[in-house]
Design brief:
The chain is α/β, with parallel strands linked by helices. Among the domains are: 170 residues, ANL, N-terminal domain (Rossmann fold); 97 residues, ANL, C-terminal domain (GMP Synthetase, Chain A, domain 3). Helix content is 28%, strand content 24%. The strands form 5 sheets. An 8-stranded mixed sheet has the order 2-1-11-10-12-13-14-15, with helices on both faces. A 7-stranded mixed sheet has the order 7-6-5-3-4-8-9, with helices on both faces. Strands 16-17-18-19 form a 4-stranded antiparallel sheet, with no helix packed on it. β5, α5 and β6 form a beta-alpha-beta unit. α1 packs across α8. The structure holds adenosine monophosphate. The site of adenosine monophosphate has 19 residues, from β14, β18 and β19.
Length: 540
């Protein structure tokens, strides 16, 4: 049959090419690690990304090879997003908050060949470099003037030297849109880090859907500041969406405290931002303590953890900033649902509106969802019945980088427990998976339990996440002592020192006579979570 449409693969490089040709003048502003402000345009970004693509080629990076980053949100990180993926290699964004042992394991599992990092992380990289045999080149994302005089990393390369050393006459290659583009590890479902590999196709489709009015509503008229890190599921896709629509981008670098963010919002006329509730707690506290107001900010996207109704209320009623509550996962690139209002609900006000906006929202085209009972039977969308949430779609993981296929009949089990109402709004009610999320980052409860169990006075240990006013959730250690023993709090917590990252150490320890067990002998952590709900929220 004649008359078919053109076949153009959906490639990440096409987003950058579009931004360069059609939004070349739009600015990208970054607060650097050094504290100063850097600004340039999409035109500059595109030229430097091509230079870095050449530089990577010269370092021997071939198609499919992994290039890792340990970096804040900034223009050099953005250049690598496009240089690496655009050339056919795989960008692997590492989470610097992980314990060095975990980082070394992840780099080995991914077989990263190059590691690019911000100077903040120089001590961390120096400490683990000897344990990263796959890494052939280490690149400090800095200029010559900021290179260390001495370092424990042999042959350390300078990012700006690499960029200067190559021309921008690089032509982005064309290849199959199903080729891998980027890689992110998550320990969100079982506690063990697993690689989620995105493709060019999944990324571009996610970008197109994510920018829609009922999702992030991104356009050339916005000035967007992603607080969500570029090492956390590609900053929720904002670095791609911004290129697609030509939005001005503002990158905060490492300064994520309330004061620094507020000053950047005001100085650059930020209209849209995105991040986890913990960040907004700090921002709201700063704004309220200093009697400030937002002069340009219109909307904020809150996700990664449930947005408390009080936060919705504070932004909307006190500061005139509309909140979009969203839910997603590393395995979903990450956007799963966003809570924009359907016309039937848009007229609601007060508490009713807050109740809807507190839900995690509805799916855009490209994702489908259902809730199921323990036998996999689909449950009704009545807003009351809860079951495990399963999803599928164009940007939902089919398989982890390694390990068994997690999907059930083509549906990915999220490990979240939720309801869905008659309008299709999903609300998370619990978590089936055994992990704790604190300030947007995962803590492995099983790792903590194993450490606790190794203590000579402990017979049984459960580690649960309980609500916390600042961090959303913090670990609480519940232990059954051995007969005749009474381990103290400090003694137990000291036992974790040096074995896990400091922020993983539980906030408190409670001693109990018994931990409730289910029919199969599994600890019923949902009952413990219920029992200790208020433990770290005494005034709630
Ligand atoms: P990550 O893969 O680190 O992005 O974590 C994804 C998980 O974070 C989800 O499976 C949920 O358990 C949790 N999560 C993300 N967004 C929300 C939200 N808006 N409300 C409640 N939990 C959320």
């Amino acid at each position: 049959m004649n008359g078919l449409m053109m076949q153009q693969p959906l490639l990440i490089s096409a987003l950058l090419r579009h931004a360069e040709r059609h939004h070349g003048e739009r600015e990208i502003v970054s607060r650097r690690v050094e504290g100063d402000i850097h600004r340039y345009t999409y035109r500059d970004l595109a030229a430097r990304a091509r230079r870095m693509a050449r530089a990577m080629e010269a370092l021997g990076v071939a198609s499919g090879d992994r290039v890792a980053t340990l970096a804040w949100n900034g223009y050099r990180h953005m250049e690598l997003y496009y240089a690496v993926s655009g050339s056919g290699a795989v960008l692997h964004t590492l989470n610097p908050r992980l314990h060095p042992d975990q980082l070394a394991w992840i780099v080995g599992d991914a077989q990263d060949g190059v590691l690019c990092f911000d100077s903040t992380f120089l001590p961390l990289v120096e400490a683990v470099a000897a344990r990263l045999p796959s890494v052939r080149h280490f690149v400090l994302m800095s200029d010559r003037a900021h290179m260390p005089a001495e370092t424990g990393i042999p042959g350390l390369l300078c990012y700006e030297d690499l960029c200067d050393g190559h021309g921008d006459d690089y032509a982005w290659p064309e290849f199959d849109e199903n080729r891998a583009s980027s890689l992110c590890y998550t320990s969100g479902t079982t506690g063990n880090p697993k690689g989620v590999l995105y493709s060019h196709r999944s990324t571009v489709l996610h970008t197109m859907a994510g920018a829609l009015p009922d999702v992030l509503d991104m356009s050339a008229r916005e000035t967007v500041l992603p607080v969500v890190p570029m090492f956390h599921v590609n900053a929720w896709g904002i670095p791609y969406m911004a290129c697609m629509v030509g939005a001005k981008l503002v990158f905060p670098g490492p300064a994520l405290d309330g004061k620094s963010l507020y000053e950047l919002f005001e100085a650059e006329g930020v209209t849209l931002t995105a991040g986890v509730p913990t960040v907004w707690q700090a921002l709201l506290a700063h704004v309220e303590a200093n009697d400030l107001h937002f002069s340009t900010m219109r909307r904020t996207v809150i996700g990664g953890a449930a947005c408390p109704p009080a936060m919705l209320d504070a932004f909307q009623e006190h500061h005139g900033v509309e909140v979009l509550h969203a839910w997603g996962m590393t395995e979903l690139s990450p956007i799963g649902t966003a809570c924009s209002l359907k016309p039937e609900l848009a007229a609601l006000g007060g508490k009713q509106r807050l109740a809807i906006q507190s839900k995690q929202g509805r799916v855009p085209f490209g994702v489908d969802m259902k809730i199921v009972d323990a036998d996999g039977g689909e449950l009704p969308w009545d807003g009351k019945t809860s079951g495990e949430l399963l999803v599928r779609g164009h940007w939902v993981l089919a398989k982890y980088l390694r390990g068994p296929d997690p999907c059930i009949d083509g549906w990915f089990p999220t490990g979240d427990v939720s309801t869905i109402d008659a309008y299709g709004y999903m609300q998370i009610t619990d978590r089936a998976k055994d992990v704790i999320k604190s300030g947007g980052e995962w803590i492995g409860s099983i790792d903590l339990e194993n450490i606790a169990m190794a203590h000579p006075k402990v017979a049984m240990a459960a580690c649960i996440g309980v609500p916390h006013p600042k961090w959303d959730e913090r670990p609480l250690l519940v232990i059954v002592p051995k007969p005749g023993e009474e381990p103290g709090r400090d003694e137990m917590l000291a036992h974790f020192e040096g074995k896990v990252a400091r922020w993983w150490i539980p906030d408190d320890v409670v001693l109990v006579d018994a931990i409730p067990l289910g029919a199969t002998g599994k600890m019923q952590k949902n009952r413990l979570r219920e029992q200790f709900r208020q433990h770290l929220m005494p005034n709630a």
